[in-house]
Structure formats: C-alpha cells, structure tokens
Request: fold
Amino acid sequence: MLSQPNSGLIPRQRRRRQLISLTPLIDVVFILLIFFMLASSFLDWRSISLGTPAQATAASSSMEGALLIRVLADGGLDLSGERLDEAGVQARLASAVGRKPDQRVLVQPAAGVRMQRAVAILDLVTAAGIRDVSLIRDSRAGG
Reply:
C-alpha cells in the first residue's frame, strides 16, 4: 500500500516575522537627550559688552589721553601712529598700564577687516590688563 506523502508529518506552519518595536529605541534617545542637556553648561559663553551710541557720545569727552590701535586691512596693527606686530602692541600696552592703571584704549578696525580679527585684537588688549576698551568706527569707511 502506498502511503500519502505528508501523512506522517506534522503540518509545517509559516513563521510570522516579529515586528521590531521602536519604543525602546525612542526611550534611549530621550535618555541620551536629557543626559546631554544636563551635562552641558550653557552659562560659560564669552561675550563682549559694547556700549550703546548714547553712552559712547557721553564718554567721548574722556577720549583725551587714550591710545588708538588701528587694525589695518592688510592685518597689521598701528599703535598711535607706529606700525607694530601683536607682541609689540601687547608689550606697549602692558607698560602703559604700569604707568597709568586706568589707561583707555580705542580699537579702530579699517574697512574690510574681518570681525574675528577685531575680536582677536580686543582679546589682546584685555590680556595686557586694559579694562577700558572701546571699539570705534573708521570715519573714512563712510555710510
């Protein structure tokens, strides 16, 4: 007698593919987000405080005796009419602070000078110990 081909076997069921749940992945992303938000410090930003134009005009009477640093378009520096490099400017400013602790310095970037270069010079001035620093506009720039 002939037997049927599948008679002795258990019928094979199709396996259903498991669906991947995204809930644990989303939980991990939120936990990482909260961790980095709590671990980061947003209060340590460096800022440059600049006076409003009304304050600048009131302070213009005290510009007498101030040192003028012109930031030239070619990247050079001019301190009160003398062309110097950054180290020379910083040395002169340090000696000026030694003579007069409340020395005022005016920084005047020429037209075409990048803002980052002007900020670097402001940092150089404050590193020399000068606290009274003003950024002024080049009158020849126009506009």
Notes: The mean pLDDT is 79. The chain has four helices and five strands.
